[in-house]
Design goal:
By secondary structure, the chain is an alpha/beta fold. It has helices at 2-7, 46-69, 75-82, 97-104, 111-123, 143-146, 161-165, 200-216, 275-289, 318-333, 357-368, 388-393, 408-413, and strands at 16-22, 37-42, 89-95, 129-134, 153-155, 181-184, 187-190, 246-250, 256-258, 263-269, 294-298, 313-315, 341-345, 373-379, 399-402, 429-434, 437-442. The protein folds into two domains: 2-150 and 192-216, 3-Layer(aba) Sandwich (Rossmann fold); 234-442, P-loop containing nucleotide triphosphate hydrolases (Rossmann fold, 3-Layer(aba) Sandwich), CATH 3.40.50.300. The chain has 13 helices and 17 strands. The longest helix is centred in the N-terminal third of the chain and has 24 residues, at 46-69. It starts with a helix and ends in a 6-residue tail after the last strand.
């Protein structure tokens, strides 16, 4: 905390942007009051940890290119050559390196993000991107990391043998040393705290006062690291984005995410994952995008959307579904039809092995050859088949897997998903797949 505060205490000396990842007790969160502190992300907020590390990777890539173009080897040289004194020095505070390494180094989905951290250690210093990390014991820091550490602050250790391993005198610190007493560059040092008090409330008050003073002196606010909302109001979304209807908020830009309104679209997920909400929101999105869209509904007697609105046509029984599917197959194949058609099929697996299966299969084929849209939902465990009705539905390789598992990508869309855990996805959040690529999306809560 002292380093994070001190880094931006002199804004006139050059901009600094501080970010934090807290695997400890959450004490770093108090830094967010400072103007130069962008965000302090909790270690268990996987989504924001990934976004922060992706942001830092982008900074490394961008600076490496720009520094090379002007032949600058350090941030200081770049500022001098270009006159851009507003280029900030970046500082990442990582509280609890041991937990970070354990959770992120070996898991296949998270290992690339641990590699970003290692890259920051190796390449970051000349580019003005620095890391300050804490570890509760010397063994928590592997050689590959310690080899890139240029300065150590050694506080009181529980194991006296650790001092020799860390290369500092063992007779300086003891169990009687006061909190904050450390060895820095071989010298006994007392680490300062804001306000000069051990009372945390008084420290926070002093920090808030310093933050007000820094803003009055013109300190520039650091950019925050956002996150996807857990609940999203459909009214907050635009009617269209890039001339497409809006599915929800995308993780890649934290902005509206559109989808191509053609072909078959699969909404899959386990129970209570928000499948019905997703269907309802897609219908609402299509109506906002194109109010002239003709809407049709196919579903069993327990279909939740049957009474959602006045459909152009709706079918419930097997014979009615069979007849409507045959009729719609010819309609969507007719290129002279002037209006856009949206067909909603609820619980599509109910119609497998019935007289309606073949007409529905032919309807799915016709839809995938047309400019119209058909959306269908089902339990992810029942949509794993690759033949017949389900196979034709998934032929478009287009849709969203709500609360997904790592294997759902291959079984639903032939697109490999990263290693994910269902509990990390609230209701209405999933991996949206289109054109062979996926992105995490939060679907809005549509009005009942």
């Amino acid at each position: 905390r002292s380093i994070g505060i001190a880094a931006g205490a002199r804004p006139e000396a050059g901009r600094v942007a501080v970010y934090g990842i807290d695997f400890g007790t959450g004490a770093l969160r108090s830094l967010e009051v400072m103007p130069h502190v962008g965000s302090v992300v909790s270690g268990d907020d996987v989504e924001r940890v990934q976004r922060l590390l992706r942001t830092l990777r982008g900074m490394l890539d961008d600076r490496a290119k720009r520094f090379s173009e002007v032949n600058a080897s350090t941030l200081t040289e770049y500022r001098q050559i270009t006159g851009n004194v507003q280029e900030p020095r970046i500082l990442l505070l990582l509280d609890g390196f041991g937990v970070f390494k354990q959770d992120w180094e070996t898991t296949s989905a998270r290992a690339p993000f641990y590699a970003i951290f290692m890259r920051m250690l190796g390449e970051g210093r000349p580019l003005g991107v620095h890391v300050v990390a804490t570890a509760d014991r010397y063994g928590a820091v592997p050689t590959a990391v310690s080899a890139n550490v240029t300065k150590r602050i050694v506080l009181r250790m529980s194991d006296e043998g650790a001092y020799a391993i860390l290369g500092v005198p063992k007779d300086v610190l003891s169990e009687r040393s006061v909190p904050g007493r450390a060895i820095v560059d071989g010298l006994e040092t007392q680490i300062a705290v804001i306000g000069g008090t051990t009372n945390v409330a008084e420290q926070n008050a002093a920090g808030a006062e310093l933050a007000r003073e820094l803003r009055a002196r013109g300190a520039v606010e650091a950019r925050n690291i956002g996150s996807l909302p857990t609940e999203l109001d459909a009214a907050s979304l635009p009617d269209r984005i890039d001339d497409m209807p809006v599915l929800g908020i995308g993780d890649d830009t934290l902005g509206p995410k559109g989808f191509e309104p053609v072909g078959t679209f699969v909404v899959a997920g386990p129970p209570q994952s928000g499948k019905t909400t997703a269907l309802r929101s897609i219908v609402a999105a299509m109506e906002r995008f194109d109010p002239q869209t003709e809407l049709f509904h196919i579903g069993g007697r327990r279909a939740a959307l049957r009474d959602l609105r006045a459909w152009r046509r709706a079918a419930t029984g097997i014979e009615d579904v069979r007849a409507l599917a045959k009729e719609l197959k010819d309609v969507v194949a007719d290129e002279s039809v002037p209006t856009r058609i949206l067909i909603v099929v609820e619980n599509v697996t109910e119609f497998g092995d019935t007289d309606a299966e073949r007409p529905l299969k032919e309807l799915f084929q016709a839809i995938n050859r047309s400019d119209h849209l058909l959306i269908a939902d089902g339990d992810v465990t029942q949509l794993s088949g690759g033949y017949g009705l389900i196979g034709e539905l998934k032929a478009g390789r287009h849709g969203i897997a709500l609360r997904p598992d790592s294997y759902d990508g291959e079984s639903l869309f032939k697109v490999p998903f990263p290693k994910v855990q269902r509990h990390e996805f609230p209701a209405g959040r999933g991996l949206f797949v289109e054109n062979g690529r996926f992105v995490t999306v939060q679907v809005p809560l549509a009005p009942e």
